[in-house]
Amino acid sequence: MNEKGLITLTSQFSLEKTMNYIETLLKKEGFHIFTIIDHSINAKKHGRNLNPTQLIIFGNPKTGGTGLMQENQTIGIDLPAKILVWSDNKGTTHITYNDMQWIANRHYLTDKNRDAINELNKKISEICTKVSQYITENQ
């Protein structure tokens, strides 16, 4: 785990292809996509330049976030979960997400929700790793 709680992987593919694959896998795992924010388009609307940067916000209130917020509502500042897909100045696409254990520690969650945190961390990590390596179910 990074000291700031962020994990970044490099994708071999374009931002658009990476985002599409993430969205597909999240839905397959039962996550609800709340919204996608395109930071670069929003920047452009205000006369600013920003490399392609999109944020996908997702969750599953039944199995994740609600239980965590019942223990400590302040975790709601970090939920729903998010994955940032962004391109650097060289055009390389990156995937960045929060380590859920770091977030749990930040909000002083107890072992009561350890299984939910571990499962959420595992699913997000697996999805981002699959996407970064473009591992399909058929391989």
From TrEMBL:
Protein name per Swiss-Prot or TrEMBL: DUF302 domain-containing protein
Organism for this UniProt entry: Candidatus Nitrosacidococcus tergens
Source species, domain of life: Bacteria
Domain DUF302: 37-99
A matching Pfam family: DUF302
Gene3D superfamilies listed in its UniProt record: TT1751-like domain (3.30.310.70)
